[in-house]
Amino acid sequence: MTQLQLLTGGSQNDPSFHQPLLTALLEAINTVPPGGHIFLCVAFIRQSGLALLDAALTEAQERGVALQVLTSDYLDVTEPVALRRLMLFAERGAMVKIYQSQNNAGFHLKSFLCLREDDLASFQATAFVGSSNLSRAALTQSLEWNWCLKVTPQSSPEARRSIVELQQQIACLAADPRMVELTHSWIDAYGQRYRKSAGPLLRQISGDTLADEPFPPQPNMIQIQALDALQQSRAQGFKRGLVVMATGLGKTWLSAFDARAMKASSLLFVAHREEILRQAEATFQRLEPDAHTGLYTGEIQQEANWLFASVQTLARAEHLTRFKATDFDYIVVDEFHHAASPTYRRILDYFRPRFLLGITATPERTDQADILALCDDNLVFETGLREGIVAGYLVPLLYQGIYDENINYDEIPWRNGRFDPEALDHAFASRKRAEHALQKWRQHAGQRTLAFCISIKHAEFMAEFFSKAGVKAVAVYAGSAMARNAALQQLDEGDLQVIFSVDLFNEGTDLPAIDTVLMLRPTESRIVFLQQLGRGLRLHPGKTHLVAIDLVGNHKACLSKPYLLQSLLSGGNGSGKGEMGKLPEGCFVNLEPELVPLLEKLKAGIRVRVEDDYRTLKEQLGYRPSAAQIFHYGVDFSKLRKQHGSWFALVHGQRDLNEQEAMVFTQHREFLLGAIETAGKTKCFKFILLQAFLNLDGLRNPPALSALAKESRLVLERHPDLLALDLADKQKAFAADSADWLKYWKQNPIRHSTEGSSGNLDNYWFEVENNCFKAKIVPPEHAETLHGMMQELIDLRLAEYRRSKGLEQRIAKLESSGRLKEVAVPASFAPLDFQEAANEVPYFPNLKIACGHFKTGRADEVEMQQVEGYSGQLDPERHFLARASGNSMNGGKQAIEDGDLLLLEWITPEHAGSITDQTLAIERQDETGDSQYLLRVIRKSPDGSYLLHAHNPDYPDLAATESMRTFARLKAVLR
């Protein structure tokens, strides 16, 4: 069957108007299957027109369609910026050639051919020949005439012959010697000519006013703050840094602005997905149109000085070794929360740029622990959802937590931190659940909805169900009948109401028109949950807010999402700790009544054992936490080792070590514990030495002492805070490759790690042999796995060291001022940083002193607080504040209510006094090693024993035991 159609663009009020070329051309491009061909042969190309086809051409290349573009420099009308954009397609396999019209004939072609199948038995094609070049005006507005010819296997021989002839003419033209391959060098030369020619004037004549931007993009206020922080960080000596910005605030643009600020002549941008790389390259190219960008596909691109590479390709040894460690001034690692994987680590350990920037939207320090270690624990700048909404760069969020009443998640298997996909797929294909979702969608949704589904089957089921209910809906996924760009365009134009998607829109996709997200899948990962929300938070004309409709089930992996969101929007860090503040104007977190008791039950859960913390964090993250993540989550490692022996013993007990890791742990557990996990940390040098040892692949190839000393100095310089803390001024002046530095490093961590001192076993795990530093017993087959396990522990120890040194510095400051004496505080209390201020004493926000039964509390955070309503003299060395919890003491003359602020005095040898009939705070350790606290009146029995008495008669007296210790006396109740 043959279809011949005349497309006559122009004003829709013109009686001759039929259809602009753009609509038909996009339909033809989107229907070319894998193995097909697309040919664009036009006299000139403007960026405005290429942008209209960009998404469709990109998706065509992704599904295996061959792309060929033939254009010209005729009259210098083709824009250099459009040619730079075409280089992105050329890097991914497209043939892009340009006809050099100087001293040659004019070039007036305007032809497009979409060849779906060129086998004569099943020939299918769509061709356009007419008057339209590739510009916005020509594709959408101008009065244009174009013939559209559609050919199928049933078409006449003449029609098929016409397509064959057009294809042959394109092939002849491509082989013409006047046609040259497009390169960055050619664009450079052409750009100089273009700026002096009539090209800009012709642009105005053509009506293509949206082609060139009159001014380059400028950073917004949040980006300006981040750029200032980055500049200060580099001034302090840091060579790596992490920036955390909520989705939608312009992380990629920030990296481009910073690269420009650094005047980076060579740049590497690393990401894990092709879509992120393509968008990033387009962003950098837009900011610096003259930059030579390029995609790394396995061959060094001599022209490209700004290189964009996938981590999967670059991390392979045969690719890494094609570069020198110092080849790049500036390295950007996008979606940096993925960077803790071994593939990323190989890249980060190999290169030595002037600066490395990690960018991510991960919201909380626990999530960031691993990646912070990769950035030398240097969190340069952080801004979240709340700040973005308040500043007006993101729209307000209206969250509707819907009880997922038709699914009992307790019946769905939970394996390795996630629900079983097959069980979910079966449970979700339910008409009752679909009807429930449809009802809630109709109640809350806006105009344009993106819905997240668990699988293709689920997406198809939901799209069919909504469609039968009269909703314009479609399922979109890799290989779906409708192309992604077509679905988004129809959604934007109102021809669709809902897109049901599967793993297409989580990362790297800008969808500003979306005003509703419908969450139909249980997202175990908080990072993925926030990425999905971020798809709709971007500004768009006419959009006032984003509605999030979330089906929340009866499982803590689901229930944590509303609490996380409440925390982030109210100014918390997403950890669930600290006080909740007011939400930004226009933001709401609404929960159906059935969810409230489930959330309260979740919040009321008491951490008892280390493995409980471990499992909780694993469920929050969606993967096995690292040692550093558990540390930042608040787990006490002395308690962990008391219960389990070591970090990897805990992980092994949770069956989270793979077969190789379990074998290495069994054979080298003492080495991991003694050489790293419990090694002394008077200074950071031992861990810097081990990091350098790993950087040099020391388990496989023991490094020479000179190489190890040099690498150690380079690692230490990446930690300017530690270098300033632990290195004397004399040694700071030593160069990394100097004899003085080598001598110093030999006398310090190398000697202490090999010869031993004080008979400590951990000093004997390494030895010097033939002037090389080596681990004593490490079979080659264990080297790779042991390397990764050692790295995890080194990251932990450096994090511990930073925290401990911060506390020790505060104590030293107090001791030097003469204001800190020996104070017998509980061992679990952090050292205090007292400040000179009248009636100001330490306040422990996490220390809950029970007025009921013993209650677990933490004293790992402290702040100074003004005391009001107390006339007595206060001493910050003797007095402190904590909250009461419970009602056992709410009787008598000095009644204590739940939540009252208690003023207490440490019990020390100097201030002990009598304890009988006094209201005292008592400490004990439970069976897990956690500290517990209780407030009671001490009564002495006739037999000489002591009882803990409550003012409230509902609470019986408790017998004092040897496991209990009085540590503070109640001075006053402050309300």
UniProtKB/TrEMBL annotation:
<dbReference type="InterPro" id="IPR025202">
    <property type="entry name" value="PLD-like_dom"/>
</dbReference>
<dbReference type="InterPro" id="IPR052511">
    <property type="entry name" value="ATP-dep_Helicase"/>
</dbReference>
<keyword id="KW-0378">Hydrolase</keyword>
<dbReference type="InterPro" id="IPR001650">
    <property type="entry name" value="Helicase_C-like"/>
</dbReference>
<dbReference type="InterPro" id="IPR014001">
    <property type="entry name" value="Helicase_ATP-bd"/>
</dbReference>
<dbReference type="GO" id="GO:0004386">
    <property type="term" value="F:helicase activity"/>
</dbReference>
<keyword id="KW-0067">ATP-binding</keyword>
<keyword id="KW-0347">Helicase</keyword>
<dbReference type="InterPro" id="IPR036286">
    <property type="entry name" value="LexA/Signal_pep-like_sf"/>
</dbReference>
<keyword id="KW-0547">Nucleotide-binding</keyword>
<dbReference type="InterPro" id="IPR039418">
    <property type="entry name" value="LexA-like"/>
</dbReference>
<feature type="domain" description="Helicase C-terminal">
    <location>
        <begin position="433"/>
        <end position="603"/>
    </location>
</feature>
<dbReference type="InterPro" id="IPR006935">
    <property type="entry name" value="Helicase/UvrB_N"/>
</dbReference>
<dbReference type="Pfam" id="PF13091">
    <property type="entry name" value="PLDc_2"/>
</dbReference>
<dbReference type="Pfam" id="PF04851">
    <property type="entry name" value="ResIII"/>
</dbReference>
<dbReference type="InterPro" id="IPR015927">
    <property type="entry name" value="Peptidase_S24_S26A/B/C"/>
</dbReference>
<feature type="domain" description="Helicase ATP-binding">
    <location>
        <begin position="232"/>
        <end position="381"/>
    </location>
</feature>
<dbReference type="InterPro" id="IPR027417">
    <property type="entry name" value="P-loop_NTPase"/>
</dbReference>
<protein>
    <submittedName>
        <fullName>DEAD/DEAH box helicase family protein</fullName>
    </submittedName>
</protein>
<dbReference type="Pfam" id="PF00717">
    <property type="entry name" value="Peptidase_S24"/>
</dbReference>
<dbReference type="Pfam" id="PF00271">
    <property type="entry name" value="Helicase_C"/>
</dbReference>
